[in-house]
Design brief:
The structure is a homodimer. Chain A is an alpha/beta fold. Chain A has ten helices and 14 strands. Chain A is about 35% helix and about 25% strand. In chain A, strand 7 and strand 8 form a beta hairpin. Chain A starts with a helix and ends with a strand. The interface between A and B is large, with 38 and 37 residues.
């Protein structure tokens, strides 16, 4: 009997050590506010991210904001109201490109919002300034342009530069992407306490885009994968494999994702890819595409990547 | 016993006659796809409307499209798939003004959509053309501008003119509104088989807008109320009464709605207002505003209007 109690206690202690270790390993808390591409108005690309144990988030893209926060609050991801999350916890938006499905939530929520930063490449900020915050499409909540209300301060990004994300414990390095050449997108490498997470906005494969932009990203991040400090990659899978290359419109399929991951594996070492979390974003929910895309990714995962399908309002750690 | 059976049968017959009569009285079927103002991305202004027993609808504004149709299908409002409703049943969009919360669903759903018409005032079409369908904010699915894909054909409207709504059994007369002077909005009078429904986009009260645009609408529709052919008015209540007049931004409160309804009653006759259905749209869901606005409308309804609060995906007849 004494032996059984002893075993139980030692097992419990080992379990607690294991759990503590796992928790300590996590660097980021992610709250998906919207996870789909296409016409799912209430569930479009937007991911809150902060260091674990911090409430100072940035939002990666801003397709759906309010509805995602409401679902997250209902799920217990936050212990405060949706208004407080939106107004106090989000310190800035990082916008990968200015297509409507990546900014509409940020724009429509601006009237009720507090002062924040918008980080984006200069061309993207120009579109936001000229075509959204212009008093015709929407009041000008930006910091520039016609009669600006100066709620959102534009922070133009330069490729490769490391900059602090204001009012957070994170820094940012940005990569240029090709989203239907010559349309420019962006990938964001978020860094905190020696760990990183990499978020891709919409992008096509290098071969289709006639580009080397993804290859350049792989070259930069391969050392981080080898060093086991890159916690996860958010990458888009808009269409199933059946979508013809000449109708990709600057997007990826499961096949193209895995081809690009193979290129990364050449640089980072196949043996290091098995620990990598691949968070699949931007699935266009037409017909049965969600099921088809998930099946194709699963069937084509020779590298043994840890594939994650984020859900609106369900927080996870990286 | 025989007497009770006789009573039961005659009561049933009377009930059936009553029901048939009521059904025969309805002119329109309405399926709200989105009912709120502000940042509720998945529930923004959009109302499908068709003559009863017709499947040829137009959509009044296009804030939320896909998510609303999905809820409607789940509620049994349609016996076909969401894709079929969107692609086959909606013949055109009537856009009251180009603010993002009235068009974002139409825009983001365009890639999966079929050819349709967009009816709007020329200034509104210019904003859609210059700032949305321009390959920077979104691919150009319009019929004009840079490299148009020509999926949506623009139909510029003239105030007061009666025009057919293509591929439907309805006609349209449009009124100009003031939505934060000098920003122009529109109201749509939809007509079928001698009956009408009147939909207002966003508008401020004449007194605050320094305008007579609402008064002009009341003068035109008063005879229709007297003739009992106007089945309902969709009107916005964005803010509660506590919102100061200098912060209305071209919107209405319960107090201002009822002041405008009093002006209409002067022209149409108070005794005719009790049959009028007032469908309240565009409540901004900040804090407790929904409850407050409903309470204020109810407390201030001396005219005895039939106030209806539409719900996303729940069809009703007018």
């Amino acid at each position: 009997m004494r032996q059984r109690i002893y075993n139980l206690i030692s097992t419990s202690i080992l379990y607690l050590i294991f759990v503590s270790f796992s928790v300590a390993q996590s660097a980021f808390n992610v709250v998906p506010l919207g996870v789909k591409g296409g016409g799912a108005e209430g569930n479009l690309s937007a991911y809150m991210i902060a260091p674990v144990n911090s409430q100072a988030y940035v939002c990666l893209d801003g397709g759906t904001v309010r509805q995602g926060i409401e679902v997250a609050v209902a799920n217990g991801a936050f212990a405060v109201t949706a208004d407080q999350v939106s107004r106090s916890f989000i310190k800035g938006f990082l916008i990968s490109h200015a297509h409507l499905d990546h900014v509409s939530g940020m724009l429509t929520n601006a009237p009720e919002d507090t002062a924040k930063f918008i980080y984006a490449f200069p061309k993207c900020l120009e579109i936001i300034k000229n075509h959204y915050f212009n008093w015709e499409s929407w009041p000008n909540f930006g910091s520039e342009g016609v009669n600006p209300l100066k709620k959102y301060t534009y922070k133009p990004l330069s490729e490769g530069q490391d900059i602090p994300l204001e009012n957070t414990e994170m820094t940012l390095k940005t990569f240029s992407l090709s989203h239907g050449n010559p349309y420019e997108g962006a990938a964001f490498l978020i860094q905190t306490h020696g760990k990183q997470a990499l978020y891709f906005g919409d992008t096509g494969p290098d071969e289709v885009e006639k580009s080397d932009k993804l290859q350049k990203v792989w070259e930069t991040i391969a050392p981080l994968i080898k060093a086991k400090t890159l916690t996860g990659i958010f990458l888009e899978a808009s269409y199933p494999n059946e979508q013809p290359d000449n109708k990709l419109f600057g997007h990826l399929t499961p096949n193209w994702i895995m081809k690009e991951m193979e290129k990364l594996a050449v640089l980072a070492g196949k043996e290091n890819m098995r620990d990598l979390k691949l968070i699949i974003t931007h699935i266009k929910p037409t017909g049965q595409n969600e099921v088809i895309i998930k099946g194709q990714l699963s069937a084509n995962n020779a590298l043994g990547l840890q594939i994650i399908y984020p859900e609106q309002g369900t927080a996870f750690e990286l």
